Amino acid sequence: MSRWFALAILCAGQLMVILDGTIVNVALPAIQDSLDFSSSSLGWVVNAYLIPFGGLLLLAGRFGDLFGRKRVFVTGLVVFTLASLLCGLAQSATMLLAARFVQGVGGAVTSSVTLAMVVTMFTEPGERARAIGVYSFVQSAGGTLGLLLGGVLTRAAGWHWIFFVNVPIGVAAAVLAQRVLVAERGAGRGKSTDALGAVLVTCALMPAVYAIVAAADHGFGSARTLGSGLAALVLLAAFVVRQARAEDPLLPPRMFRYRAVSGALGTHALMISGVFSFQFLAVLYMQKVLGFDEVETGAGVVPVSLLIGVMSLFLAPRLIGRFGARAVLLAGLVLIGGGLGVLGRVAADGAYLTDVFPATVPLGIGFGLAMPALAGLAMSGATPQDSGLASGMFNTVQQVGASLGLAVLSTLAASHTGTLLHDGAPRDEALTGGYQLAFRAGAVFVLGALVIAVTVLRTPRRSPHDASADGTGSSRTAEADIPSATP
C-alpha cells in the first residue's frame, strides 16, 4: 500500500486530536450554560484534556519505542474515540471532565508517535520534506476547521456534537491504520518506561492548576489554595528526585545542560502561556460582550489560523534560512506581544473590526514565524541521540504551558470581573475589564519569553554541509524532528 495513503491515515488521526483542541473553545459558553460551570471552573473543560495530554506525551512516546509505534497509535485512537463518545453523552460537569481526561490520555498516546512514524516512512530528503509539509498543513487546517466546525455544530445541533464528530473519524482511522500501517518491532519489554515519573509529573500538574483556579473563589491565602499548591510542589520535587535517581529516567537531567534546549523550552512555555489567552478569552469576549453566535465566533478567529498556516508552511522556512532562527523568533515574539497588547484595549462597546481583527494579524504572523524558529533552535541544541527526547520535551512544554497559562489567565479575568461587579460596574464593562487584564498579563508572559530568547538563545552555527542540506539552511535531522502546532 502507498506510503502516501499511510501518511493520510496518520494525518487523519492527528487531525482528530488537533480538531478537538480548538473545537471545544467556541462551544464553551454553551457548555457552561448547559452544565452549570462557574466562570473560573470553565477552564477545566480545556485543562482536563491538556493535563494528561502534556503529562503523558513522553511516556507514550517511550511506549512506542518499546512496543511498536503502530500498536501505540491504534490504541490511542481507540481510547480517544471512546472518550469522545462519552463526552458527547455527558449529562453533568463531572462526567464531562472525567471523559475529557480520558480523551487527553488517548490524544497523548496517538500524537506521541505520529511524527516519528512520518519520519520513519519517508527517508529520502525531498519526500520527507513534502511529507512533513503535509503533516504541518493538516495541523494548521485542523485548528481552523475546529473553530468553524465547532461553531456550526453547536449552533445547529448542540455542543454534544462537537465530540460526536470525532467518532466516525476515529473509527475509520483505527480500522485503516490496522490494515495499512506497517508494524515494526519495538525494543522489547525489558527496557524501563519510568511509569512512576509520568504519574508524578501528571499528578503534580493537577493540584497546581487547581490551586490557581481555586484562588479565584477562595483567595490565594485560603487553606484549599495553599494546600493544593503545596501538594503540587511536593509531587514536582518527587518527580525531580525520581529523574535524578532512575536508571532510565523519563526526563534525563542532562537535557537541561544543553543551553539551546533549556532556553527554547523556557521561551516556549511563556510564549504558549500568553498566546493561549487569545483562543480562550477572545472567544468569550466575542460571545459574551459583542454578542456573537457560535458561527460568527468561529469565523472571527479563523484569520489567526490561516496566517499561521501560510507563515509556517511557506514564509518562515525562507526567512529562517536568510536571517537565522533567532532573529525570526524575536520578530515573531514582538508581533505576538503587540497583538495581545491590542486585545488588552478591547472595549465594552467595541466592534470586531476595530477591537479584535487588528490583533489577529500580528498574532497569526507572529506565531507562524515563532513556532518553526523556536522548534529549530530547540532541536539544534540536542545531540543526535537525544533529538527524539528533545522533540518530546518540546511538545510536552507546549501542553503544560497552555494548561497553566490558561488557569492563570482565566482566573485573573474571573477575579477582576468579580471585583468590578462588586464595585457596581455594569456587566459588560466588568467582563471586558477582566479580559483586558488577562490579555495584558498574556503580553507580559510573551515579554518574558522575549527576554529569555534575547539573553539565552543563540543562532546555532551551521557547517556548509548543513546549510546545503535544504533550501532553508537547516539540517535534515533537525527538520525531521520539528513539530508544528497551532495555538
TrEMBL record:
Span list, region Disordered: 462-487
Q: Cross-referenced SUPFAM superfamilies, in alphabetical order? A: MFS general substrate transporter
Stretches assigned to the Major facilitator superfamily (MFS) profile domain: 6-460
Bilayer topology annotation: Multi-pass membrane protein
Q: Which residue spans traverse the membrane? A: 39-60, 72-91, 97-120, 132-153, 159-183, 195-216, 222-241, 261-286, 298-316, 328-347, 359-379, 400-417, 437-457
* Coarse class of the protein's main subcellular location: membrane
Name recorded for this polypeptide: MFS transporter
- Per the UniProt record, the source organism is Streptomyces rubradiris (Streptomyces achromogenes subsp. rubradiris)
